[in-house]
Amino acid sequence: MIQYLNTSLKHYIIKTFHFHIAWRYLFSKKGHNAINIVSGISAAAVAVVTAAMICVLSVMNGFGALVEHMFSEFDPPLLVVPAEGQTLRTDTLPVASLYAREDIEAVSMQLEQTALIRYKDHQTPARVLGVDSLFARTAHIDSIITDGYYSVYDGAFERTVLGRGLAAQIGMNAHFVGALHFYAPERTGTVNLLRPDKSLRHEHAFIAGTFAVNQIEYDDQLLLVSLPMAQRLFGYDEYTASALRIQPKSTMKIGDLKLKISKSLGPGYKVLDRYEQQADFFRILRIEKWLTVLLLVFILLIASFNIIGSLSMLIIDKREDIRILSHLGADESAIRRVFLLEGWLISSLGTAIGLILGVALCLCQQAFGWLKLGSGSEYVISAYPVQVQAPDVLLVAVIVLALGFVAAYYPTRKLKMEN
Known about the structure:
By secondary structure, the chain is of the alpha+beta class. 50% of the residues lie in helices and 19% in strands. Helix 1 packs across helix 10 (332-368).
């Protein structure tokens, strides 16, 4: 036991001695002033690239959070869709059991398909989303209404709420009194070639308002109508829907509820959270984020060559110190370890400065919005959004320190002691 403690103490003293020498070399005056300059440039280059990585990742996180918030104004927390096909039945178990669950606040039916819409001389295909009376409890629809009001049925007339871009395409707004006409082909039966118009189902509704999610797939393609009207238009009965929108209780965790519902429904249905409902968009966002990281890592790799240069110059400058250390009993591995620590300290100093600078810049942008997107109302927000996330900061630190270690290892592995 005593021998083990003595050995551990010996190793600790040796490592501390190596670190002390490397620390002295980092801040002591070198024989040539150029070495100090190159070492400072190396640390500054690492700091700048580190700060840039923090800022870029935080801005991309900010844009991701912004778009997620936009989608959350319309998308439900959970969406139940059939694993195969386009529709599901709400009058059969286990789907009907969702309505009786105590951990669910509201279950809303929706039916979505494509139809041709026409207003006067304007016509275009559009995604028609039929919603029931509980839709407003699963979406913040009132917060995205830009003109008029939300209503799909007023007790006497069918109403529709259009995406702002779609309304502009067909020349409508919330204050028009003319009806919007809907046409969809019959799902069953044969087409009358002499009168193909007889093979179309027709409905009409009056515009109540327009909404804006600030996403093309909603604003330029989607409109809302009542669920019964959509079921008549597409030839379905009252128990047919394309999906169920689920609003959990406020105290319920989405992940836990999703798992419970998936188990109760079985393999015939899929339960999608907000990320999975917009899987393609968030996948592209993640790809862009990591491609940006790879680009910045490449720039960091170039900046790390400064560490190789400064460490090589330091080894040449400290040849006399190396000779003295060897005469005192230090072997090649010990001396390599000193200069390896020296290079890693240069990288660590740059990393620490870069992390502090990057996080500080992001927090200032969050608080003051210094960097503007532009002047005008065409932007959803006026300044670049930022969101600093601890995993990103940790990832950047690991990447920079790892590259710094590799850059320091290269010149030290060829170090040879002179007799």
